Amino acid sequence: MGQQAPDLAFVLQDRQGAIIGPRAAAVGIAIADAHAAGEMPMSKAIEWPLSKQLGGRPSPTVKGVRSERPFAIFQMPQARSPGIARSSSSSIAVARRRSRSHNALLNDDRSVEMASRPNVLIVGGGIGGLFAANALIRQGLRVSVYEQASALGEIGAGVFVTPNAVRHLERVGLGPAVERWGARVGPGSYYFRHDGTPIAPVQVSDASGWNATFGMHRADFVDFLAAHLPAGIVHTNHRAISFEQTDDLARVKFGNGAMAEADVVVAADGIHSELRSYVFPLSKPVFHGTICYRGLIARERLPNWPMDRWQMWAGPSRHFLVFPVRHGTMVNYVGFVPTDEEMKESWSAPGDPAVLVREFEGWDPRIASVLQQVDETFRWALYDREPLLTWTKGRLTLLGDAAHPMLPHLGQGANQAIEDGMALATILARADTSGVGTSLLAYERLRRKRVAEIQLGARQNGLRLDSTDIDLSARDAALAAHAEFRKRLYTYDVVPDAHTAAAALQ
Question: What average pLDDT is seen over the chain?
Answer without folding.
Answer: 80
